[in-house]
Specification:
Layout lengths: L2 H12 L3 E7 L5 H14 L3 E5 L10 H12 L4 H13 L6 E4 L2 H7 L1 H10 L4 E3 L9 H7 L7 E2 L1 E3 L7 H5 L6 E4 L15 H11 L4 E4 L5 H4 L8 E4 L1 H9 L4 H15 L2
Parallel strand pairs: 1-2, 1-9, 2-3, 3-4, 4-5, 6-7, 7-8, 8-9
């Protein structure tokens, strides 16, 4: 059982929901990213999703695209992000960390090399939005070689329908439910059949169900709290950080407030 599964098991025992944030590695620089990670941990974050900057992040809207671009302009890279992860683990970060990245980055680096680097630097999970289930064989084969490998998180969307049982059959960690069609950061304009879709996923899933895309506050997901096991905030969190000059206090306040309201 890795850090993600341990944290989610603890939350289930406590009857609490998980809060997950997304930040872009190296924005505005790696030292700031590290400070923000520790600030979130202190505030009670459950899982941190760290975006590896990429030149063409196709699942992401303008906010995260811009964050990725700025980070790359400031020198961020996959190698630098691995080094950052190693640094925070050595400095005592205990929270589960998931890398969100695109398969081109993994493939170019070399799948086996990539997985080994994840193990070496304490990466607990992977979200690869442009890698369909049918194309996951290569990376799954490499991940299965080592019990300390990160978990590959499965994404489902409102149009997954008949694919849901297949996607979730051997899924681990949590299932990432995309709340709307299109890209990230469009605001809480959830899919018209959101309740039916989430109910179907919950029925099939043996693992916690998380909802992401367009969430800003705990109030956005309050009508669905009886179904979901947690919420993921990305674009709004990045905007908040930018507006507050990447303040650790602002990050901690947002995490603590959201988590409290989510579990009120």
């Amino acid at each position: 059982m890795n850090r993600i599964e341990e944290r989610l098991a603890t939350l289930k025992e406590e009857g609490k929901k998980a809060f997950i944030t997304y930040t872009t590695a190296g924005l505005p620089d790696y030292d700031t990213t590290k400070k923000l990670m520790f600030a979130q941990e202190k505030a009670g974050i459950d899982i941190m999703e760290i975006g590896v900057p990429f030149s063409d992040p196709i699942a992401d809207g303008p906010v995260i695209q811009d964050a990725s671009y700025k980070a790359i302009q400031n020198g961020a890279s996959l190698e630098g992000t691995f080094t950052m992860m190693g640094d925070v683990r050595k400095a005592g970060l205990k929270s589960p960390v998931v890398f969100m990245l695109y398969y081109n980055t993994v493939y170019h680096y070399g799948v086996e090399n990539f997985v080994n680097k994840c193990i070496e630097n304490g990466v607990d999970g992977l979200i690869i939005p442009d890698l369909p289930f049918e194309e996951q064989g290569e990376i799954k084969a490499v991940l299965s070689k080592n019990e300390n490998s990160p978990i590959l998180i499965q994404l489902v969307s409102p149009v997954s329908k008949g694919r849901i049982p297949m996607l979730l059959e051997n899924a681990r960690g949590f299932v990432y439910c995309v709340s709307q069609m299109g890209v990230t950061g469009k605001g809480a304009n959830f899919h018209s059949q959101i309740r039916e879709y989430l109910t179907e996923v919950k029925k099939e899933s043996k693992i916690p169900v998380m909802m992401g895309f367009g969430i800003r506050t705990a109030a956005d997901v309050a009508p669905l709290e009886d179904i979901i096991d947690g919420a993921i905030v990305g674009s709004h969190f990045i905007k908040l950080l930018e507006a507050n000059n990447y303040s650790e206090e602002a990050a901690a306040d947002y995490v603590a407030t959201f988590k409290k309201e989510l579990n009120a």
